């Protein structure tokens, strides 16, 4: 199996965090152009808007299976999604926990996200597709590379 990993294009901030900027849309188009040269059997994408927008550009040039799954999403920040990082930092400080242990309400801590990546990898090993492209987020990709190595 050949595995290709792509981070979504440049994203907005604040309320626009789950969309692509103009630069991000252009990055998605250039990424799609690159993958036109390769035969992809399956694309597995996160289900956030920014990964979907990136995936939509790539899939235009591929005749392949497509799967959207939350397993490859970024670590969930729960109640802090789309809010200023200062709010998260204050809650983290008040919790007196290490950043890796802090789990925001309705969110994940680092271990939760890592374990979700492990589950994805277990499922991936059952795949029969030869060339798989995963469109995700930097945190998920870092966890996946760590597990693969």
Structure commentary:
By secondary structure, the protein is an alpha/beta fold. It has helices at 22-35, 49-59, 85-95, 110-124, 138-148; strands at residues 2-7, 42-45, 65-68, 131-136. Strands 1-4-2-3 form a four-stranded parallel sheet. Helix 1 (22-35) runs parallel beside helix 2 (49-59). The mean pLDDT is 92.
Brief synopsis:
The protein is an alpha/beta fold and 149 residues long. It has five helices and four strands; from the N terminus they run βαβαβααβα. It is globular.
Helix content: 40-55%
How far apart are the first and last residues' alpha carbons, in Å? 15 Å
- The structure class reads alpha/beta
Radius of gyration: 16 Å
Beta-strand residue fraction: 5-15%
Number of strands: 4
> How confident is the prediction overall: mean pLDDT?
92
Tell me, what's the shape? globular
* Physical arrangement of strands within the biggest beta sheet: 1-4-2-3
Main sheet summary: 4 strands, parallel
Low-confidence region ranges: none
Q: With helices defined by DSSP (H or I, 4 residues minimum), what is the helix count?
A: 5
- Series of H and E elements: EHEHEHHEH
